[in-house]
Every structure is written in C-alpha cells, then in structure tokens.
From TrEMBL:
This is Dymeclin. The lineage of its organism: Eukaryota, Metazoa, Chordata, Craniata, Vertebrata. InterPro entries: Dymeclin. Pfam families: Dymeclin. One of its GO terms (biological process) is Golgi organization. Belongs to the dymeclin family. Keywords: Lipoprotein, Myristate. One of its GO terms (cellular component) is Golgi apparatus.
Amino acid sequence: MGSNSSRIGDLPKNEYLKKLSGTESVSENDPFWNQLLSFSFPAPTSSTELKLLEEATISVCRSLAGLWTVFTLGGVGSKVAAASELSSPLANQSLLLLLVLANLTDAADAPNPYRQAIMSFKNTQDSSPFPSSIPHAFQINFNSLYMALCEQQTSDQATLLLYTLLHQNSNIRTYMLARTDMENLVLPILEILYHVEERNSHHVYMALIILLILTEDDGFNRSIHEVMLKNITWYSERVLTEISLGSLLILVVIRTIQYNMTRTRDKYLHTNCLAALANMSAQFRSLHQYAAQRIVSLFSLLSKKHNKVLEQATQSLRGSLSSNDVPLPDYAQDLNVIEEVIRMMLEIINSCLTNSLHHNPNLVYALLYKRDLFEQFRTHPSFQDIMQNIDLVITFFSSRLLQAGAELSVERVLEIIKQGVVALPKDRLKKFPELKFKYVEEEQPEEFFIPYVWSLVYNSAVGVYWNPQDIQLFTMDSD
C-alpha cells in the first residue's frame, strides 16, 4: 500500500478511503488516513489472505479513527501546523506524547518510569546486559535515531528531544560524541542560533545548551577544527568559501552574544554562550581570520560599552553634587556585569594563547592589529593578572614586526608571527586554571520544561483542539 498512488488495489484511492473509513466524507488529502496508508504491509499470497487482511485493516483503521475523533474533539488544531508536522502527523504526535510522558513529575514513592527508560536505553549493537536496577530497559538503533535527529532540528520538539537525550542518557551522549560526522548534527543547531531573530527564546536556549553539553568534551573541541566546510549559504554576513566547523561555531556564538547585548540582554544567554567559548578555548586550532577578527571585535564592543557606562556614572555623580534631591542611578551594577563579561573574554583569549599559540597566527594578527584596545586594561585591578600573557604576546610580536621594517604585507606579517611563535619561550607565559564549565539543570527544572512541553503540544499538535480560554499553565503569547 502507498499513499502516493492514485489507486489502492482495484479501487481508486478516494473510493478505498471511503470503504476503509466507513464514511462518505473522508478527504483524499486527510493527513490521518494518508499516514495509515503510508505503512507497508506484507503482500497476501491467496484470495483468502487478501480478504482477511482487508477486513483486519478496516477494523483497525476504524478503531483508530474513532480514537482520533475523540482526541481531536471532532475539531481542528489550535493553530495552523508547520509543513513538517502535516507531512508526518503521527510522528509529530508521538514525539509530543513522548516529551509529555518524559517530563511527568516523579511520584512520592516511585520515579517517572518513562524518564527512567529514556535515561537508560541502549544501542541495538550493544550486547552487554542491562543492570538489574533498571526496570524499564529497551534498545534502539542509534544510527537511525541520530540521522533522524540531524534531519529534524528545525522544530522545537526535535531539539528538546535531542537535549533530553544528550543530558540524561550517557549511552547516547557517548555514541554521538564518537561520531565522525558531527557536522550533520552541529550545523542545524548553529543555524537555529544564527536565525535567533526568527526563533522563540526556548528553542534558542535548548540549542545553546546542546552546544554547551557538547563542548564539555575535549575530543569534540579538537575534532570540530578538523572538519572543513565549504560555502555555508545561510551565513550571510560574509562569504565563507571554506571554514572549519570550529571557527563557524565561534562565529555563530559570538553573533548570538552581540545580538543579546543589543536586543534581549538576557544574562542566562550570555553566561551559556561564554561558557561554550571558554570550554573550547584551549583547543582552538587554525582559527579562520574572520573568526579571530570577531573575537577581538566582541572585546572592542565590550570595551566601548565599559567606557560609556563609566562616562555616564561620572556625569551622574557630577550632577548629583549640584542637586541633592536627584537620586543617583545604580551604575555600579551595570559596570560589574560588563566587567565580568570582559574578564571572561580576556580569559578565553588568554587560554588560547597559553595552550595553542602556535596553532593560531590569525588570532595573534588580530590582537596586534587592535593592540590599542588592551592598553586601558593593563593596569586595571580587575584585569591586571589575566592581562600579563596577552600583554607579553602583543609586546613580543610588536617588537619583531618593528625590526622587520615598515609597510609589511599581510602575508609577511603572518610569516613573522609563525617564526616568532617558535622563538617565544613558553615558560614566560603564566599558567592559569583550565577553563571548564558544565551544564547543570536548575533545582526545579519542571517549572521550565512542563509549561514549555505543553505549549509545544498546544502550538504543534496536528488536529488537536484546545480551548485557549482554559489554558492556565502558560501564557497565550508564550513562545
């Protein structure tokens, strides 16, 4: 049987659907019946088998249709469903149901069995026995699951499932991190972040946390710089004819930080973006020149913002001296937040210079080109310690460029940098603790996830009607 055919057996498709459903009103384009017709059945070998199969099929389909009618209240969906949801309605409903079940709260005397099953299932190729402590065990083909997740990241529910599996199932996390085609998974996640303006905030959070979980692994951080990509068409700021997956990841995360600074100003988003960059920083390899430029440009933006707040604080203080009645704005808090971010960026740059200076001539070039930016922070008490290595590198290579003469080409500067890396004594760079951040869920994650999952059910379930006036779990303008 196949839903793409205009005939089913000896009958036209629309006549077969009427016979199957027991009603004259069924549409030839109805997603439910087309989904059922898309399943493959073994071909009968006799007329008796054909009759039995037809009767069984009609019985099952009518039973399912009855359940479907009850479930949808005979009505239509709350919102127009996306094309991907309409093309595979049964898969979409199943995924939503799985997310609802996985996010049920634990009973007082028993944990959620659905969550337990999601946390412990294994690959079909894994022949090791399940521990006796795992009551709800099953196996699934990890390769098929991985490929499906790679293809479906345009939807909130698929990204939420990926997050759930990566965070809660160590078997899945180990398998995915061992894949040699991680770009198939990472690129769709980066595209979600790149189009942050078009995505809801929850979808962006999930995509960012997935990246943070992946960057906790040093093997991932090394391998992404070995994967070369060509012609990233969705990246429109600049034509990227060839770039490593690692450099592209850095570009997208920095763009997300800059968007957040100018639009949403979400501290949670900032923190996770910087944590992902920090996790990767010791493993930066052969950074693309544009990625290196964007790192320094972000620092430049932060520096300007720092100076602006300082200027506003000074002017406000002067104004308050002449008028005791005017309350003084709290610029100290703004300044502390900006200085925390500036310090983190300096730590990221320092981590790269300390651990992989010889692999990143483009970053050294970008630092030298904008070396005046760092002058004001050399003696600043909040940054003095972390500035030591950056100042040393800038001073060392500036001296070598001065010795080489004026009017040097870009190629000649890079050549001098590569030669200078060998001559720079490594023991002169001060060692700092390794930057490592780990994602940890909030103490009561259900306060975020349960309303989020049900908002997805409301917005995405195909053909399911919910009375908007009765919804109390989330606001109707919830993303």
